[in-house]
Amino acid sequence: MTQQERITQAFELAKETYKKWGVDVEEALKKVQEVPISLHCWQGDDVTGFENPDAQLTGGIQATGNYPGKARTPEQLRADIDKAMSLIPGKLRLNLHALYAETNGEKVERDELKPEHFTNWVEWAKAKGIGLDFNPSCFSHDKSSDGFTLAHHDDEIRNFWIRHCIASRKIAESFGKELGTPAVTNVWIPDGYKDIPVDRTAPRERLKDSLDQIFAVEIDEAYNLDAVESKVFGIGSESYVVGSNEFYMGYATANKKLLCLDAGHFHPTEVISDKISAVMQFVDQILLHVSRPVRWDSDHVVILNDELIAIAQELVRGNYLERTHIGLDFFDASINRIAAWVIGTRNMRKALLFAMLEPTDYLRKLEVEGDYTSRLAILEEMKTTPLSAVWEYYLMKNNMPAGSEWLKEVKEYEKEVLLKR
Ligand code: RNT
Ligand code: ZN
């Protein structure tokens, strides 16, 4: 039996199994293919960017490990992303940070960045037919060295970061215009205190004012959508973070902005899967930073664990996919970086497929009837349905190597390209 025959046969059997549950597999495959997932460029170089190759990553985030072969030039990074994307099925976007500007060796301050510094990225995205998303980079910079940016007490510094965020929104607007799909621009800042502050109010007042100024510059939502990302703590800001959940929840609701939920930005037993349906009552759209915190906001590669599945289930069951922008946010420097992208992004897509292969209406009916016994039994049953047979077939339809064969390609690329850097 050829591999193709084996995969097709297993798929046909799986289809029968799902049919018994009233699930239309073909429909799920069509739907899952179209959900955009925004790949984060920063997994490729440990959040270094091209502004200063020797810059220290600051802002309370950390990429640990020194696996060889990280991308050091825009060309290398794009080649690595190309490689990763060639192994990830379904619709993708790329999420860029301002740090990834190309300035031809010229020093351009962050508040002076312009769309022209991203021309190569736009041309690259155009050629691939994908959209771009964006982030102002409010860290790894002299003017953020005391841990404050948009909430800084010094107006000169605060204004610098305000100008950077406005410049970033304009760059994102140009992406939207050029690529025909709005860019999501996400504002995340590290501002906070290591130890217990005396004044929790003033920094929050300043942050609110900064955001008001940033968003006062009108940009058509057809080109750019603004998101704000909260956090509970960072390394060096353990006691107080200005942009907390309550702060941004309030801000996004009051100002009709997108709320970004990062899986690693809450207390360790809190999960974002439970927050989706809550915040969706008050904001039109959300951005997700799908990540995997291990004991802290460690940004491990996303695996197919309970929380990832729960996130996907919430999006599918709640019919929230149209109002959700799925972005990834992890950076592991201890393993092959391309493999990290492939594993994490495939898992996000696989979780969505899993959620789409669920007999949700039936489960809902059991729930309403109060038959929680059957609800639990069937949810457990679904965990061992032949998802992998459907997944393999899906990969084949996308002309991608089956099973873990993609790994051979990545190892080959490592030998031929990464290790020669
Ligand atoms: C930091 C935030 C933020 C960053 C990226 C690089 O805790 O999660 O989203 O990870 O912008
Ligand atoms: Zn994040």
What this model shows, in words?
By secondary structure, the chain is α/β, with parallel strands linked by helices. It has two domains: 1-23 and 357-421; 37-338, Divalent-metal-dependent TIM barrel enzymes (TIM Barrel, Alpha-Beta Barrel), CATH 3.20.20. Helices cover 43% and strands 13% of the residues. It is built from 14 helices and twelve strands. The protein has helices at residues 3-20, 25-34, 74-85, 119-128, 155-179, 201-216, 245-255, 273-279, 306-317, 337-356, 360-368, 372-382, 387-397, 406-416; strands spanning 37-40, 92-97, 131-135, 183-187, 192-193, 224-229, 240-241, 258-262, 286-290, 292-294, 296-300, 324-328. It binds L-rhamnitol and zinc ion (ZN). Zinc ion (ZN) binds at residues 188, 229, 262, 289, 329.
Give a short overview.
The protein is an alpha/beta fold and 421 residues long.
Report mean pLDDT, rounded to a whole number: 97
CATH architecture of the largest domain: Alpha-Beta Barrel
- Using the CA coordinates, give the radius of gyration: 22 Å
How many structurally independent domains?
Answer: 2
Cofactors, ions, other ligands: L-rhamnitol, zinc ion
Helix coverage percent: 40-55%
Number of strands: 12
Low-confidence stretches: none
Distance between the termini: 41 Å
Output the CATH class name of the largest domain. Alpha Beta
- Read across the widest sheet, the strand sequence of neighbours is 3-2-1-12-9-8-6-4
Looking at CATH, the homologous superfamily of the largest domain is Divalent-metal-dependent TIM barrel enzymes
Kindly name the structural category.
Answer: alpha/beta
* Count of DSSP H/I helices: 14
Order of helices and strands: HHEHEHEHEEHEEHEHEEEHEHHHHH
Strand content: 5-15%
The profile of the biggest β sheet is: 8 strands, parallel
Shape: globular
